[in-house]
Amino acid sequence: MWVASLLIWALIPKSLGFYYYYYPSGIFLVVALTVALDHWRAELRGWDEFYLLACFALLIYFLPVLCAEPLTDAGAFRRWTWFSSWI
To answer: Do 65 and 80 meet the contact criterion of CB atoms below 8 Å apart?
Structure first.
């Protein structure tokens, strides 16, 4: 289901994509990760909490971009671009 919803997003004939195009794929991915974490809970022994904290930290970090907050200047977006291919 994740791949099918991702293909729809990938085939959009626009050069600019927004996160809400990926939203259905994100829901399927979260469900799959939750099931995987529950399945391997005994083997992970605390790593699942670390993973959830890392996800929460990344959410807080990227929230201004995801909410389309106004940028302070023209180059402010570089704060959230980790790779040169993201520009």
So the answer is: yes
- Mean pLDDT within 43-66: 86
For 20, the enclosing helix (H) or strand (E) is helix 19-39
CA distance 32 to 63: 23
Cβ atoms within 10 A of the Cβ of 25, count? 19
Structure tokens at 3: 């791949």
Q: Is the pLDDT of residue 72 over 80?
A: yes
Q: Which position has the higher pLDDT, 5 or 36? A: 36
Q: Read off the pTM.
A: 0.56
Type and span of the H or E element at 79: none
Q: List Cα–Cα distances, 69 to 11, 12, 52, 73, 76, in angstroms.
A: 27, 25, 25, 12, 11
Identify the CA nearest to 59 among candidates 1, 9, 51.
51
